[in-house]
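Field reference: "sequence" (input) and "structure" (output). Example, Putative monooxygenase, FMN dependent:
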Amino acid sequence: MLLGTAVHDPRTVQLPLAHAYLDAWRERAHADAARPRIGVVRAVFPARDRRSALAALAPDVVRHIPWLAASGHPDVTEPEQIVQLLNVHYGHPDDVIESLRGDPALFPFADYFLPVVQSESSSLDDALARLRTLAETIAPALGWQPAQAAA
């Protein structure tokens, strides 16, 4: 199963979905069957601090205002409100780590964590810098270790 990013509250949408998926599997699986895998996609936007991350995200997230209004959120018009509603993990790497650790549908369900590090207007260099921060700082803090090189 793949749980995506367009979720306003993973606690009320994705967490019950993950539980239902695993419960249904347990009811039907053979005793020796491998546990089904779950991938979780999250918007991860590390930066120097929350303010600079939000400033970089703002031009792109405000484009979602009409969609948010049409989907029942007409009062969500400020960039900070939008990134919160869209479940974007942003800011200093320590902020991102804390935010990801608090994501109720990410741990312990995710077998695969699929971070999205760019917004619509991100340059390739910006995206690569965020990926580097993710690989060198954020992912290790969450328990990830690089695979060992094949001998």
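The CA atoms of residues 140 and 148 lie 14 Å apart.
Residues 124-141 form the longest helix (18 residues).
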